[in-house]
């Protein structure tokens, strides 16, 4: 380890300790930070950027259950403290409040980059910051991976394909994306991130993994994230009208969160050279109106379906071709939509009856 790295490491350790003290004082919750002390900085952990979010927190769960040491990094732009509270029992879990737009340095062996708002209302709220997170954030984590020769995972997206003219979408389809619209900050940001990952692999030999994630759902989704399943469930449970954009004939494919996380683990653990994007999602295809009707039936709601104008650049159809994941990873989803919806509805039922003071938000 060179002197410059030691200096940066010491500075970051001091910063992370301060961040942990700040969190403890703000929320009254102590985040174990045994992995971030000067005595054991040689121990190489797994870094999960965006670890307080929906997918990130489930990934932290899985990695900790598998016996890994995990450092969660999140700036709470959309992540929630409540998603991490149950992880405090692990001595191998640490948390740092940090925005990956700023560089960071930790001795890690693997990096998962899940740090970016993923729902339209959230990524459109500050499109410049969304683009910075995709580009500057990826650049900072790739430089960290280069420094420590760490394998790095990019959570890319089916939005790479835009409003596709090929169906289902294979990885070699280049997409139909508007570079000058309200969704462009996310779509083009993720495309740019993939380019950076590819170039770091070619130029610096960084061991990269890229997953193109299709619609995913499950417990810990935010009730206000604006995605179709969370919207429909919350509206149904409240007895409100179910808002369908367009006539509801557009199609989506829905993957349950535990299936997706299994795909992450298999992709990251694969020892062959999978340095190109891999689709991860459930190839089952449903119309949005069918989904709304199923959720109304499962919740016993009196909600009615109402139609609203289709948002700009909203894709008409979305379904993954997962041939590569089946062939290279032996992976395919196993949780049927009805089963996944049952547990997701139960989660939202619990969330909606909790006082706001119990929902640990950070601003």
Describe the structure.
There is one protein chain. The protein is α/β, with parallel strands linked by helices and 363 residues long. It has a domain at 45-217 and 255-282 and 317-334: NAD(P)-binding Rossmann-like Domain (Rossmann fold). It is built from ten helices and 13 strands. It has helices at residues 3-27, 54-65, 120-125, 127-148, 184-204, 228-238, 257-269, 288-299, 323-329, 337-352; strands at residues 45-49, 70-74, 93-97, 108-113, 151-157, 208-213, 216-217, 242-245, 251-252, 255-256, 278-280, 286-287, 305-308. The strands form four sheets. A seven-stranded parallel β-sheet has the order 3-2-1-4-5-6-11, with helices on both faces. Strands 7-10 form a two-stranded parallel sheet. Strand 1 (45-49), helix 2 (54-65) and strand 2 form a beta-alpha-beta unit. Helix 4 (127-148) packs parallel to helix 5, helix 6 packs parallel to helix 8 and helix 6 crosses helix 10. The longest helix has 25 residues, at 3-27. Mean pLDDT is 88; it is low at 1-42 and 356-363.
